[in-house]
Amino acid sequence: MNDTDSPLLSGLVAARELRECAKCGTRFIGWSWHNHCHACYRHLKSDPDAPQHDPEAETRLLRMELEMIRLELAQERQAYLGIVDQLATLERACMDLKTERDLWMDRYYKALATRASRRSVIPPGILRRLLWLCHPDRHGDSEAANTATVWLLSQRKKQ
Ligand SMILES: [Zn+2]
Q1: How many A from CA of 63 to the centre of ligand 1?
Q2: Would you say 145 and 139 are in contact if contact means Cβ atoms under 8 Å apart?
Q3: For residue 42, how far is its CA from the centre of ligand 1 (angstroms)?
Q4: What are the residues whose beta carbons fall under 8 Å from the beta carbon of 136, sequence distance 6 or more?
Q5: Centroid of ligand 1 to alpha carbon of 20 (angstroms)
């Protein structure tokens, strides 16, 4: 990953554009401040009597320019592939976090359910005292004492 290179690269690519020569109308790739094609620029800078075109030099310059553009393109592509790779990594991390969140939510709901069921259970110490208090032997084997004892015993089985 080359995070430091890509903004500079995109800046370079953005600064270079297809331009039209102000003198001869030829289209060329240059910086935004270039107003003349290579041939006209050299002609303007040199002796007006000098030959206007040097096809070999022009070809050399164009080849250099093409090579530079190819290099920029390759670097841009590399940066793009790096970003795609990073995106895939982030998407995987996001999936993992969602799975983990679901797991914790599941645990949370289970804990809530457990707490709710525990709340309705009579604590063992209290249950023992209640059984002792309403034992049928203490209440003349009454129907109320028997019913209450059966229910209290059923609560003990749930624990
Ligand atoms: Zn020109």
Answers
A1: 18
A2: yes
A3: 9
A4: 142, 145, 146, 149
A5: 8
pLDDT in tens, 35-63: 888 888 887 777 656 556 678 888 888 89
Whole-structure pTM over 0.85, yes or no?
Answer: no
Q: Calculate how far, in angstroms, residue 47's C-alpha sits from the geometric centre of ligand 1.
A: 16
pLDDT of residue 154: 82
Q: Which long-range contacts (CB under 8 A, 24 or more apart) does 47-53 make?
A: none
Going from the Cα of 41 to the center of ligand 1, the distance in angstroms, rounded, reads: 7
Which amino acid appears at position 89 of this protein?
T
Helices 143-158 and 124-133: crossing angle in degrees, nearest 10, is 160
Comparing CA positions, the residue from 121, 154, 151, 156 lying closest to residue 136 is 151
